[in-house]
Design brief:
Helix content: 40-55%
Strand content: 5-15%
Pathway: Amino-acid biosynthesis; L-threonine biosynthesis; L-threonine from L-aspartate: step 5/5
Strand order of the largest sheet: 1-2-10-7-8-9
Radius of gyration: 20 Å
Cofactor: pyridoxal 5'-phosphate
Number of domains: 2
Family: Belongs to the threonine synthase family.
Keywords: Amino-acid biosynthesis, Lyase, Pyridoxal phosphate, Threonine biosynthesis
Catalytic activity: O-phospho-L-homoserine + H2O = L-threonine + phosphate
Structural class: alpha/beta
Number of strands: 10
Bound molecules: ligand F0G
CATH architecture of the largest domain: 3-Layer(aba) Sandwich
Length: about 350
């Protein structure tokens, strides 16, 4: 038995990096595929959670970032830039720090979770906030990278999606065949594109089949569902607060080629799934991540998920990134006297 080596060494033959390319890794990937007993019971399906919050910076972005930063170093780049709702910037900052690159991140002012901001800052990135949406940030970052000597590490950088497709490989290795349905949140639409690519590649080589791709946007930020750009996207799920996804057409292709769907879930459904995951599955995710599970429950409710199917829901980011939502919906801490009697009384315990 040997330890996990990170996604580049584990899947090198399937990634567009030469044999001598430098590897910048935090040993990302190899994340748990956790059976979800309560969700299985609620849906009559065999449900698993792909827990991407277990990655080094707490989200799936690390899979793409290890490849994008390694390629940037190999190409002699000195500086990287990205637009972000928070997780891409946290990941870029960490991998850039490790590689000794300068990193700048562009985020929508006041709209990224506290933990993600802490991550970008602690890793030494330049954090630029602008008064606008993620979509405005991405436009500025793209044009900047076209004009100045900085490498763009958003998912429009092809190395990003190549790295992210490895999550599908891991699921296929764990289950042996593709699930019937794969649910995931959709923001800039890179991840649904990457998973679909990963499932197709493996199926081409090993005949493992392909799932139906079920993507879920937040109702106030659902351009693909509505069929038009959303100029002022709104949702508590800040990670997917995006009105004009870069990989829009790829997501539509994944949906249509797989016989899947892309639907909207509202903030109330997202928060209900967020709490269910924490309280009944023991899995603490950030609100945006719960969109996959909210979507599974909603489509099951609508009769679109036949019982007995095998379903994987990707939960994309760690709950610790956005602690405000955990605290606001929960019971308050109770202050007690510093005695056994004080604790027993607060807990309503009787002597045995
Ligand atoms: N879940 C989380 C936690 C995310 O951070 C993101 C995207 C998504 C889902 C959606 O993935 O964009 O590939 O469709 N976050 C990006 C960022 C936009 O800047 O961190 P997608």
């Amino acid at each position: 038995h040997r330890g996990w080596r990170g996604i580049i060494e584990e899947y090198r033959d399937r990634l567009p990096l030469g044999p001598d390319a430098p590897v910048v890794t935090l040993l990302e990937g190899g994340t748990p595929l956790v059976p979800a007993a309560r969700l299985s019971e609620l849906t009559g399906c065999d449900v698993y959670l792909k827990v991407e919050g277990a990655n080094p910076t707490g989200s799936f972005k690390d899979r793409g970032m290890t490849v994008a930063i390694s390629a940037a170093v190999g190409e002699g780049s000195r500086a990287v830039i990205c637009a972000s709702t928070g997780n891409t910037s946290a990941s870029a900052a960490a991998y850039a720090a490790r590689a000794g690159l300068v990193c700048a991140v562009l985020v929508p002012s006041g709209k990224i979770a506290l933990g993600k901001m802490a991550q970008a800052l602690v890793h030494g990135a330049r954090l630029l906030q602008l008064d606008g949406s993620f979509d405005d940030c991405l436009r500025v970052a793209r044009e900047l990278a076209d004009t100045y000597p900085v490498t763009l590490v958003n998912s429009v950088n092809p190395y990003r999606l190549e790295g992210q497709k490895t999550a599908a490989f891991e699921i296929l290795e764990a289950l042996g065949v593709a699930p019937d349905i794969h649910c995931l949140p959709v923001g800039n639409a890179g991840n649904i594109t990457a998973y679909w690519r990963g499932y197709n590649e493996w199926d081409g080589d090993f005949g493992t089949g392909r799932p139906r791709m079920f993507g879920f946007q937040a109702a106030g930020a659902a351009p693909i569902v509505r069929g038009g750009v959303v100029t002022a996207p709104q949702t508590i799920a800040t990670a997917i607060r995006i009105g004009n996804p870069a990989s829009w057409q790829f997501a539509v292709d994944a949906r249509d080629e797989s016989g899947g769907l892309i639907e909207a879930v509202n903030d109330r459904q997202i928060l209900a799934a967020y709490r269910l995951l924490a309280r009944e599955e023991g899995v603490f995710v950030e609100p945006s991540s719960a969109a996959s599970v909210a979507g599974l429950l909603a489509t099951h409710e609508a009769g679109k998920v036949a019982p007995g199917q095998r379903v994987v829901c990707t939960v994309t980011g760690n709950g610790l990134k956005d602690p405000d939502w955990a605290i606001s919906g929960a019971a308050k801490p109770e202050t007690i006297r510093p005695t056994v009697a004080g604790a027993a009384e607060a807990l309503g315990l009787r002597r045995s």
